[in-house]
Design brief:
8 helices; binds hypoxanthine; five-stranded mixed barrel; alpha/beta; Rossmann fold; 280 residues
């Protein structure tokens, strides 16, 4: 077998021990910030910032719009660890590499994952700039981060995904969202990096997806395997209508995500402030 699970386990545990020594608190809450949303980390009260390059065995980011820093600080009065910059399948990483940082945090106490991304809207009632609560997902990335030998200490061989996105967390977010309009739907992860054709867009809509992107699902699978609760949020950067298909420009995607950043941050802040301490 090409993949050495024992060596992976050792790397995860070593990175975990390193972070445990560095972090000023036990990292119960993890935030993953996606495309164009990394500025949200600037609003945290930062205690510590560690470049990925200084963390043993961490992959390093190749995409300019994804800075690679782990930030420990507080947001909404709660201690959080934020990943500013993430790894994608389309960059050439395996899903074991993509999910390495989150697996490390799950080993040193992470209980809740808040994950955000920029996505293409497939549901034609969505508008650019909307925020969609991810209610469920479809994995079309031709890999699974749990493929290969299972480490029982890390989680079960066949993890249940009947509630991959916690209903309790979704309800809490809805309760505190107030004037911020929220959409809700199914996120489909595709391998990328090419964007969808009109025919693929029609297909994704037909199989039940409301938004499409190239991330998130691998991390959510690992979080569930590790027994974490997940809240997923997509910023709808563009809306793809198969019958009136417009070019999807990265510049537009990033600028829409940036424009929605403050709204997303306000939501996450209110959510964290309302999150009961017993959850942590
Ligand atoms: N497709 C895939 N990924 C994306 C899109 C899209 O239209 N927009 C932002 N990320």
């Amino acid at each position: 077998m090409g993949f050495q699970i024992e060596s992976y386990r050792q790397k995860v545990e070593e990175a975990g021990q390193f972070l445990k020594r560095q972090l000023p608190f036990s990292p119960s809450l993890v935030l993953i910030l996606g495309t164009g949303l990394s500025g949200a980390a600037e609003h945290m009260r930062k205690i510590l910032e560690i470049p990925y390059t200084e963390i043993p065995h961490f992959p390093s980011s190749t995409v300019e719009s994804h800075r690679g820093y782990l930030i420990a600080g507080s947001l909404g009065g709660k201690n959080v660890v934020a990943f500013q910059g993430r790894f994608h399948y389309y960059e050439g990483y395996s899903l074991k590499e993509v999910t390495f940082p989150l697996r490390v945090l799950s080993r040193i106490g992470a209980k809740i994952l808040i994950v955000s991304n920029a996505a293409g809207g497939l549901n034609l009632s969505f508008s650019p700039g909307d925020i969609m609560i991810i209610r469920d997902h479809i994995n079309l990335i031709p890999e699974n981060p749990l493929r290969g030998p299972n480490i029982e200490e890390w989680g079960p061989r066949f993890p249940d995904l009947s509630q991959a996105y916690s209903i309790d967390l979704i309800n809490l977010l809805k309760k505190v969202s107030m004037e911020i309009k929220l959409q809700e739907g199914v996120y489909v992860a595709v391998p990328g990096p090419s964007l969808e054709t009109p025919a693929e867009t029609r297909f994704l809509r037909l199989i039940g997806a409301d938004a499409v992107g190239m991330s998130t699902v691998p991390e959510v699978i690992v979080a569930n395997h590790a027994g974490m609760k997940v809240l997923g949020l997509s910023v709808i950067a563009n809306v793809n209508d198969p019958d009136h298909f417009q070019p999807i420009l990265l510049k537009e995607v990033i600028s829409q995500a940036k424009a929605a950043e403050q709204k997303l941050l306000t939501l996450v802040e209110r959510f964290l402030a309302a999150l009961p301490e017993e959850e942590l």
